[in-house]
Design brief:
The complex is a heterodimer of chains A (317) and B (308). Chain A has helices spanning 43-66, 71-76, 88-134, 140-151, 155-168, 175-182, 186-199, 202-210, 215-243, 247-252, 261-271, 281-301, 303-313. With 317 residues, chain A is mostly helical. The longest helix of chain A has 47 residues, at 88-134. The two termini of chain A are 38 Å apart. Chain B starts with 5 loop residues before the first helix and ends with a helix. In chain B, strand 1 and strand 2 (63-66) form a beta hairpin.
């Protein structure tokens, strides 16, 4: 990666006129804010943090570079630099067409699971969090205790009994086996609960009720707009959870036609180890890149919204 | 925006509170009901079902018989289970402090305002969280390769022979590296968000008292984000005990180093899907769930009491 774009966006009012390499000139008269708010930038702290940055980015760079290589190129060239022939477009084309375009099918499956699973999980968490934050009802404390306790139950430990239960109900090897368990996000509920208690003034709800709005209308017209940053946050985190889910579909699905991307990629990778299986490492690498791009794009595009939602969630424990 | 009309906000405060509370009391369920219904289906029912399963044994001859707590007794004597638990405990003891330590340092560096390009750091270090465990493991698995991967490249370029990251001695550390890579940024963000909401008047007061950076960190910042630290620790403990994806995906690359009982979860999975021992598998899962909950609970109690 080339040198980072230095975006000096400080929380103070004054614009810092710093150029990288030289400490920002302290010309302006310090107003109310002291140096606790405008500390001098430190080159060596930046360098030190750059080590973690490198650690985080080098594998992604490796992936992006490797996606441009042919199968032979992968093994003959240095991992972090390009091979002679640039095969990115061929690789992408092959990824989507290999094995009758099964990758496209996996992509559509993943979109289906994310749409219904993460969308549904967010909807349920928003409704539930709103109820816990803004209503007083019998059993409220008990529900909260049980749900928060459930966060500690290993989700993977639940998968096997859920599989056995679902197979009795005839749901395994159908999309429902992946979607239904994805609908519950205890962490999402918790985040929404904290967020709703802060973001919605009770007076506003009362005002709406006095105006004659019913509970449903109050929720949709008054509460929902105020909850938007929290909703984006929960949606992104449930999206990541369902998009990246591996264990649940691994347990629930046998038919490759219902695989999500994660399971499909792993099956491509494992194919090389089976007798007579064709090694398609270039497709595994390119498919991996295609798999992560939508989520990275979502995080980058929506970051101003989810950040404010997350900050509220971490205030209390 | 759909804000209510000014007239609504200005309306006189009405109605005795008691009347309103009784009306409220059941509407809350209308909103929470859907969550609780699905929750019961996908959380409570499977837990109940696995408790039920754990009390039976499926014999080759004679079918399913009630055996009481026999399965639990077997689990307590099961060397493979304890070996797996020991492995994840070692993993937990090393990987979690390293990961949370790096995450905390980066969060403090970001929050100090002393970095050039803060936003770039924050976003980039967080990005690996968006990468599925499958992709992360495949990627690192390629890079670990001593023949074709980065390790092999380095060996070839410098004429050295680095130890094989996928050898039995090192594979646990290699898995730890993958997990650290995946979650450093996530934890960093949790800490950073918590740091951002500390009132700045505290820093100004500390500055007037002559406190340096380190003192501000130990006396103000760390106590203020203790809740976030405890939550992150608990999630990391749960995550370590659940370890499954990374070892199971790496297994084809390191079949001698990673056995099918490498972690408790891997063991549960193998029992159920390769061994058809559903009842015993349910028992192991319950024992593991109980151990996880107890440890998470102890950490929470200690974390909330300590400090200040």
């Amino acid at each position: 990666m080339t040198s980072p774009v230095v975006t000096v966006s400080d929380r103070g009012a004054a614009k810092a006129a710093g150029t990288p390499g030289s400490p920002p000139p302290r010309l302006r008269t310090p107003r109310r804010r002291h140096s606790a708010d405008k500390p001098r930038r430190s080159v060596w702290l930046t360098l030190l943090t750059s080590l973690v940055l490198l650690y985080s980015l080098v594998p992604l760079i490796w992936l992006a570079v490797s996606a441009t290589k042919t199968q032979e190129g992968l093994s003959r060239s240095f991992g972090l630099w390009f091979d002679g022939d640039f095969a990115l477009w061929e690789n992408i084309g092959q990824t989507f067409t290999y094995d009758d375009g099964v990758f496209t099918r996996w992509l559509l499956n993943t979109l289906l699971y994310v749409g219904l699973g993460a969308g549904g999980a967010t909807f349920l968490a928003v409704l539930g969090g709103y109820a816990l934050a803004k209503f007083d009802f019998p059993g409220r404390r008990a529900v909260f205790a049980v749900v928060i306790g459930a966060v500690a139950v290993p989700g993977t430990a639940l998968a096997v009994p859920t599989f056995l239960m679902f197979s009795k109900m005839g749901l395994t090897n159908t999309p429902w086996a992946v979607i239904v368990p994805s609908l519950i996000s205890p962490f999402g509920l918790y985040l929404m609960w904290v967020f709703a208690s802060e973001a919605i003034p009770t007076e506003l709800m009362e005002a709406a009720r006095i105006d004659g709005a019913g509970e449903v209308r109050t929720f949709f017209r008054v509460a929902l707009p105020l909850l938007a940053p929290g909703i984006v946050t929960v949606l992104l985190f449930t999206m990541v959870a369902t998009w990246n889910n591996y264990f649940l579909p691994l347990v629930m699905l046998k038919d490759p036609d219902w695989y999500p991307l994660t399971l499909g990629l792993n099956s491509w990778n494992a194919q090389a180890a089976t007798a007579g299986g064709e090694a398609v490492f270039n497709l595994v690498v390119t498919g991996s890149l295609v798999t992560i791009l939508p989520l990275i794009a979502a995080f980058l595009l929506l970051q101003r919204y989810w950040r404010s939602g997350l900050a509220a969630g971490s205030v209390k424990e | 925006m759909t804000t209510p009309q000014p007239s609504a906000a200005a309306a006189p405060r009405p109605a005795p509170p008691r009347a309103r509370r009784s009306r409220r009391s059941w509407t809350g369920w209308g909103f929470l009901g859907p969550f609780v219904a699905v929750f019961a289906l996908v959380f409570l029912a499977p837990i109940a079902y696995s408790v039920y399963l754990s009390l039976f044994r499926d014999q080759l001859i004679g079918g399913t018989t009630f055996v009481g707590l026999d399965n639990y007794a077997q689990a307590l004597r099961d060397d493979r289970f304890w070996a797996a638990l020991g492995r994840v405990s070692l993993f937990l003891a090393v990987q979690v402090p390293v990961m949370l330590g790096i995450a905390l340092l980066v969060a403090l560096a970001l929050d100090s305002g002393r970095l050039y390009g803060r936003d770039f750091f924050r976003i980039s270090i967080f990005l690996p969280y968006a990468v599925p465990a499958v992709v992360a493991t495949l990627m690192w698995g390629f890079m670990y390769g001593t023949r074709f991967g980065l390790v092999g490249d380095i060996n070839g370029a410098f004429g050295v022979s680095l130890p094989d990251p996928l050898s039995p001695d090192l594979v646990l550390a290699s898995i730890g590296n993958i997990v650290t890579w995946e979650f450093v940024g996530y934890n960093m963000l949790i800490f950073y968000s918590a740091l951002r909401v500390i009132p700045h008047s505290l820093y100004e007061a500390a500055q007037i008292d002559g406190a340096g950076q380190i003192r501000v960190i130990t006396a103000i910042k760390l106590p203020a984000i203790r809740g976030a630290l405890v939550i992150a620790t608990i999630f990391s403990i749960i995550g370590s005990f659940q370890l499954f994806n990374e070892p199971s995906i790496l297994q084809p690359l390191a079949p001698n180093a990673i056995t099918t009982d490498y972690t408790p979860n891997f063991y549960t999975y193998s029992l159920s899907f390769n061994g058809q021992q559903h009842n015993y598998s349910a028992t192991v899962a319950i024992v593991m769930g109980l151990i996880t909950m107890v440890i998470a609970y102890v950490v929470q109690l200690r974390g909330m009491r300590k400090g200040v």
